[in-house]
Amino acid sequence: MAGTAPTKGRGGMSDQRRHRLRLDVSREASRLFWAQGVDATSGDQIAEAVGLSTRTIWRHFRSKESCAEPIVMRGVEWEMSTLRSWPPQLSLEVHFAAESSKFGREASDVERMDTELAIKMIRLADTEPAIRTAWLMACDQVEREMAEIIAGRLGLPAEDLDVRVHAAAASAALRVLNEHIGAAILEGTDPRDFADAPARIARAVRAATGGAVGDPVTT
Amino acid sequence: MAGTAPTKGRGGMSDQRRHRLRLDVSREASRLFWAQGVDATSGDQIAEAVGLSTRTIWRHFRSKESCAEPIVMRGVEWEMSTLRSWPPQLSLEVHFAAESSKFGREASDVERMDTELAIKMIRLADTEPAIRTAWLMACDQVEREMAEIIAGRLGLPAEDLDVRVHAAAASAALRVLNEHIGAAILEGTDPRDFADAPARIARAVRAATGGAVGDPVTT
DNA sequence: TGAAAGGATGGCATTTAGTGACGCCAATGA
DNA sequence: TCATTGGCGTCACTAAATGCCATCCTTTCA
């Protein structure tokens, strides 16, 4: 998703630039959170690390803990875009496997480092309630995306109760697997040992939706 | 901690008293949150409403928003205890229906008022991120309880990955239905219109676990 | 029954997250 | 060129949250 880089800055320096600025702050904040803990990290420290005034930090983030949000969100961005690009005629297993191997081959170094930071933040969420909020917010985004995709596949509105229930169940299953895999990687498990992860995820999503989501759709 | 000292005995606020105090504070705080919004409610206000000093409030709650936690937790306590009391030989549908009708008959006024407050807090969680944290924490508790129950039914340890995935999916489905029913009740829908709620919940849990959880268990 | 002990509370000072107000400066546009 | 705009920094300030200490209340034991 990040292949586009050069020649930006057109028109106003707003949306994209703002996003990148938030990401820069988030990287430094996450690094500090991981190194010293959340409580031991002050807004002033984050500001100094990223080379901005404290006031500017608060202009871009509602709270200290929310500084972790962009990085955490990056950790689920792959899943979000994978869901978004799921063609109706493919099964979830096939699509996930293909996208996963593509990520393994094509991911940039920055993407890998951000992913690693995201995993650390998810780990921190275990013990730091403040960070847990950010993680759950990201999961909430995944759930909404999931609702859209499921609604499309089932030919129902995204507000339909069954769709929402399926989306919640599927994204919850996805969350647990994410936490599990992330924890294992931090423990030192070789990421290659998770070659079957896409299949496992697909299977979990299929099961969590009672089999309603996973098969190819023929309209 | 060397030697088994008389941990009870003298001094020390009993767990029960502490719990009741937190609940009292939570009732007032929730009432204020609902009436004026979270931001407009100060710690001093909560303290005055409950007749304690502000300092004491901070002794019993880590943060302002966490004052809502006990009430929100009460909103899921029924489900937790219902899950805990689920006999192996009953199907989920039958047990939930029985417990639900029992609650309708036997719930005290205080319980009903607390439940109403909890529903309001869950509603607030839609727009107030601070309260959403409390709601998601409560859902997390339900998920852990669910994992215990599922583990017992499936004869697996609660840490088993499949068990955790099933628990996450099931409790997420439960969460969405809770939010849906709560929102409808606040809109003025007659609670009697939700007579089929237990069946619906049971069905959703069964579906979310891929059918693995719901049937009677014969050991 | 009267200390003694120890936790619970309140008051005060202090730190820190977060906001408001104002001014500066760079980029844009006529 | 000047005026506008918008991001940023500085200062002042509100409110959340913690530490410290004096006090109160309760339980236990002599």
What keywords describe this structure?
globular; 219 residues; 2 domains; DNA-binding; 68% helix; disordered N terminus; Arc Repressor Mutant, subunit A; Tetracycline Repressor, domain 2; 9 helices; homodimer; mainly alpha; 0% strand
Summarize the structure.
Chain A has 219 residues and is mainly alpha-helical.
What does the model show?
The structure is a homodimer of 219-residue chains. Chain A is mainly α. Chain A folds into two domains: 15-67, Arc Repressor Mutant, subunit A (Orthogonal Bundle), CATH 1.10.10.60; 68-208, Tetracycline Repressor, domain 2 (Orthogonal Bundle), CATH 1.10.357.10. Helices cover 68% and strands 0% of the residues of chain A. Chain A contains nine helices and no strands. Chain A has helices at residues 15-36, 43-50, 54-60, 69-84, 92-106, 109-124, 129-154, 161-187, 197-208. In chain A, α4 (69-84) runs parallel beside α7, α5 (92-106) packs antiparallel against α9 and α6 (109-124) packs across α8 (161-187). The first copy, chain A, is globular and about 55 Å long. Chain A starts with 14 loop residues before the first helix and ends in an 11-residue tail after the last helix. In chain A, 37% of the residues are buried. Mean pLDDT of chain A is 90; it is low at 1-12. The interface between A and B is medium-sized, with 27 and 26 residues. Chain B binds a DNA duplex (30 and 30 nucleotides) through α3.
